[in-house]
Each structure stands twice: as C-alpha cells, then as structure tokens.
Amino acid sequence: QVQLQQWGAGLLKPSETLSLTCAVSGVSFSTYYWSWIRQSPGKGLEWIGEINHIGDTNYNPSLRSRVTMSVDTSKNQFSLKLYSVTAADTAIYYCAAGQVWLVTWGQGTLVSVSS
Amino acid sequence: DIQMTQSPSSLSASVGDRVTIACRASQTVSAYLNWYQLKPGKAPKILIHAVSSLQSGVPSRFSGSGSGSGTDFTLTISSLQPEDSATYYCQQTYSIPRTFGQGTKVEIK
Known about the structure:
The complex is a heterodimer of chains A (115) and B (109).
Chain A: E1 3-8, E2 11-12, E3 18-25, E4 34-39, E5 45-51, E6 57-59, E7 67-72, E8 77-82, E9 91-98, E10 102-105, E11 109-113
Parallel strand pairs in A: 2-11
Antiparallel strand pairs in A: 1-3, 3-8, 4-5, 4-9, 5-6, 7-8, 9-10, 9-11
Chain B: E1 4-7, E2 10-13, E3 19-25, E4 33-38, E5 45-49, E6 53-54, E7 62-66, E8 72-77, E9 86-92, E10 99-100, E11 104-108
Parallel strand pairs in B: 2-11
Antiparallel strand pairs in B: 1-3, 3-8, 4-5, 4-9, 5-6, 7-8, 9-10, 9-11
C-alpha cells in the first residue's frame, strides 16, 4: 500500500522559491506517475503537474513557466519547486500517487507567502 | 481547459438520506472522471474512479454514474452517515490540465 510523506518550508516571502519533497514507500517507484495539487484558502483544488520515475513531466500551463518537478529514484522521492512565489501561491500543497486517478494523497503542507 | 461544474455547491441532509451531487464537464471527458472526499486536516481520499468504479475500502453506499455522454456525472451517497460530512470534488483526467470541480460541501443536519 503506497504511503506518502511530504515536507518543506511553510513560510515564504514574495519572490522566493517554494520547495517541497514527497517520500514514497510501500510501492515500486516506477508504478505510478507522481502528482502535485494545491488548495488555496477557501477555494477548490488546482492540479499543478505530474512526473514519472524517468522524469517525464506534464505541467499545468498556468504554472508551467514557474514550476519544476524532479525525481530522486535512489531515495524514492519526488520534488516540486515553484519559483517567484506571490501571495496568490498561498495554499495547502498535496503530493499524490497516480495519473488517471489519484490513488493516495499526502497529508498536505500549508505554504504561506507573506512579506 | 475543460471546465468542471458541480452542483449544488453545498447541501445539508439528515442521516439516512440519499444524497446526489452532479458534475458537468464543458466537453467530453469520456470515462476519465473521478470523485474525491476532502476533510479538514486529513489527506484527501479517492472514492470513485473511471466514473463508477468504487475504490477498494470505500463503503458501498457511495456510487458513481454517468449519462453516457461523457459530460454529465453523478456521485450518490445512498444513506448518508455522520462521517460523510466533507467536501466532495469531481476531477477529469481526460486532458491536460487535469481539472477539478469547485467542490460540494455536505453537512449533516
């Protein structure tokens, strides 16, 4: 059974880089695509993008210019970087396993952007 | 982008009631339609994938259906339980970007 444990900085200033990592256990890292989703305060869910074990990515076009996803297969981890953050990037960020459907989600990391 | 529209945005029902949540796509998503349950402070949970396939471990009171058009879908809770108080989201994975509905908040009377 796949389990996800995520972490990263929770408080950023405008223009800084958001950096989150998600560790995978309980399943082969090559089994799934690995996804990132966010939920802004009082709003719905926004898909950020997905990556597979060999680094193939699909990004949300609305964020593509500021997003990089990567994998570390030696550690069974995948990561998200979002550059030049603003207050609009304040959200709970989730990692998840899956592409056609999101089988398991991480517990979420609240990231606040404030000067 | 494919727009996903849920209705209603919120509802209040009693324990034992049958609850129905609708999700409409702005264009066909074929059978690439999923439903999730979100509760504050908890990891979101997949309920239904591919329109009507119940995820393992999810109670059978949850069911999903589609009209066959690839644009209209329904999540049904056959007998609402207290632990079903949550926000429910549909999601299409037919195309990039994978988009979600705006959510339906279900409260227990």
